[in-house]
Amino acid sequence: MKTLYLVRHAKSSWKVEGVQDMDRPLKGRGVRDAYSTSEWLREQNCIPEHIVSSPATRALHTAIIFSKNLSIHANEIQMEPGIYHANTKDLLQIIRNLSDEHSSVMLFGHNPTITDVVNKCIDHRIDNVPTTGVACLRFDIDEWKNLDKKAELVFFDYPKRRREN
């Protein structure tokens, strides 16, 4: 069994002028949402063995906040440059190349690719994975390279959903 947590980075700021897209920081709301979502995951005992992140500032900052709240040392975050510009096919290949020593991995990336990969892996459709949204997928496989099988959507959560409940 393999468990994959696909996380869209938290809300980023467009206010900082002259900053390239790769370097856009998180907004205050993004930081708060990253803390609340990672705390919720900790309460649900959803703690991955490994974290992989896009090197974009907004994704990596989100991953660092999650790692702190999930008691995973930030130095253990694997930065994967290919996630930043990945399309669906590229991201699926990055996932297939994960080490089989990890049964559960949390991957931080960007839309529309995160939403597209979730929809490729499940039998129904999610319109959008919003910022700081998390989709937990469970695959009945022993090796990541066999990711072609459909996954069970264990849960799909995001900050607005928890605020509404």
Note down, in words, how this protein is organized.
The protein has a single domain, classed as Rossmann fold, CATH 3.40.50. 32% of the residues lie in helices and 19% in strands. The chain is built from five helices and six strands, in the order βαβαβαβαββα. The chain has a six-stranded mixed sheet, with helices on both faces. The radius of gyration is 15 Å and the shape is globular. The mean pLDDT is 95.
Number of helical segments with 4 or more residues: 5
Approximate helicity band: 25-40%
CATH superfamily: Phosphoglycerate mutase-like
Rg from Cα: 15 Å
Number of domains as seen in the coordinates: 1
pLDDT averaged over residues: 95
Q: Order of strands across the biggest sheet?
A: 3-2-4-1-5-6
SS content category: alpha/beta
The SSE string, one letter per element, is EHEHEHEHEEH
State the CATH topology.
Answer: Rossmann fold
| CATH architectural designation | 3-Layer(aba) Sandwich
Low-confidence stretches: none
N-end to C-end Cα span:
31 Å
Largest sheet: 6 strands, mixed
Concise account of the structure shown:
With about 160 residues, this protein is α/β, with parallel strands linked by helices. It has one domain: Phosphoglycerate mutase-like (Rossmann fold). It contains 5 helices and 6 strands.
List the topology elements:
Layout: E1 2-8, H1 28-43, E2 50-53, H2 57-69, E3 78-79, H3 88-96, E4 104-109, H4 113-121, E5 134-139, E6 152-157, H5 159-164
Parallel strand pairs: 1-4, 2-3, 2-4
Antiparallel strand pairs: 1-5, 5-6
Give descriptors for this structure.
Rossmann fold; six-stranded mixed β-sheet; alpha/beta; 165 residues
